[in-house]
Predict the structure.
Amino acid sequence: RQLTKYYPEIFSNHMALFSEKFSAVLVKNILKGRDQGYYREDFNEKIYAKFLFHLIMSYDNIHFSDDFGLERKGYNNEVMMFYIHAITTQKGKEAIKKINNNK
């Protein structure tokens, strides 16, 4: 938070670089998951990766975060489930269900 207050340009550059690295990892994961039949083919993986990054990072920046009634961890978990359900095939959904049943 101090970076944004005192060094906004440095923070902005840092977040842009972090976003690129984070998104690259997600795109690689999506391509691998598509090859395995877990992820859908009919979406732009680069845009979806950016969507996820922005949703995850928005927790501190949203003025209505109290509306969710969630702490950061709960919010991030819900965002991840939203994302995973948006990109998975039926095979992927079955794998998620299997993982959740084993917990």
